[in-house]
Amino acid sequence: MSHEHLDKSFETIAIHAGNTADPLTGAVVPPIYQVSTYKQDGVGGLRGGYEYSRSANPTRTALEENLAALEGGVRGLAFASGLAAEDCLLRTLLVPGDHVVIPNDAYGGTFRLFAKVVSRWGVEWSVADTSDPASVRAAVTDRTKAIWVETPSNPLLGITDIAAIAAVAKDAGAKLVVDNTFASPYLQQPLALGADVVVHSLTKYMGGHSDVVGGALVTNSAELGEELAYHQNAMGAVAGPFDSWLVLRGIKTLPVRMDRHSENAGKIAEMLTRHPKVSQVLYPGLPEHPGHEVAAKQMRAFGGMISFRVTGGEQEAVDLCARTKVFTLGESLGGVESLIEHPGRMTHASVAGSALEVPGDLVRLSVGIENVDDLLADLQQALG
Ligand SMILES: Cc1ncc(COP(=O)(O)O)c(C=O)c1O
Questions:
Q1: Do residue 22 and residue 68 come from a single domain?
Q2: pTM for the complete prediction?
Q3: Tens-digit pLDDT profile for residues 228-237
Q4: Is 54 a catalytic residue?
Q5: Which domain holds residue 328?
Q6: 154 lines ligand 1 (CB under 6 A)
Q7: Which UniProt keywords apply (predicted)?
């Protein structure tokens, strides 16, 4: 861990933590250690502490140190995808008979992992409106071991008061998990607000360029960090060296990207609120958003994700997604390029018929860092 960076500001940590010059050559960027195994000087004589790249790899270590520093945690772990990270976390925290509270708005794949996979192993779950601490408190049972929160949430941009739910979790003796994918650690620091573990899909803002799939866990408990690292190795869904390198590279520009994403999204949300074909805009930066005050308290800015409902119903929402020319129709989010999608038929198809079902007239935007005038004009022509 590059402790000398920890008292620096976020932008400096993003560029320097974990990115120590290569001891062999002085290369200022950590090399891609594309290697599976390491020569031992006699049996058990490890040179740099590395023996096999599932257990540890220097490029992944650089990323994991960087992630821990960015979230203000003591241990960061990098995985092959966000869902691989979530799977490792759930199977570390929970055993059969345990109970977990999950949000009524979350990434569809997260819900699927609970409802279709983890539940088969005898873990029980119930759904709560995490924007309301009383709803979470009511869902807690004497077997609750974890409370899961996603804020801002995907795709309804709901806001959860992390500190308030941390208090509920503490009373219940449960761990608070926060999926920080939409905000990124630049905009929001869940561990400082009382969370026990932060989850990321590194695929999104952290990677930032739509060219890598990855996931992360960060915790401020050394003990839990050890347990998670043990399971990471035992389960094996680790981030590869090249993927780790791509994310490490993306993170260096995270603060400047997030500032621009937030600025562009604020202007687009404002335009949408005035558009006659739009019935509702879901963006925490808007004063009328029910979570606006909490978001303003716990986030540095409001991020690049916007959802909105159209007046013409589901077919109009679907058609609109095909009419944009700068916004690319596609799943995922958080890249420099703007994306548009229909959650009901795309990212959230797996929650159809559940408590997490999303409205058919909903459109989700991942606002990129292009010139905002081009983005505004594109949406205006697509809305007609
Ligand atoms: C909020 C959130 N969490 C987790 C995930 C899962 O991450 P991955 O696709 O990297 O497995 C996603 C993916 O869209 C997401 O949006």
A1: yes
A2: 0.97
A3: 999 999 999 9
A4: yes
A5: 254-383
A6: yes
A7: Pyridoxal phosphate, Transferase
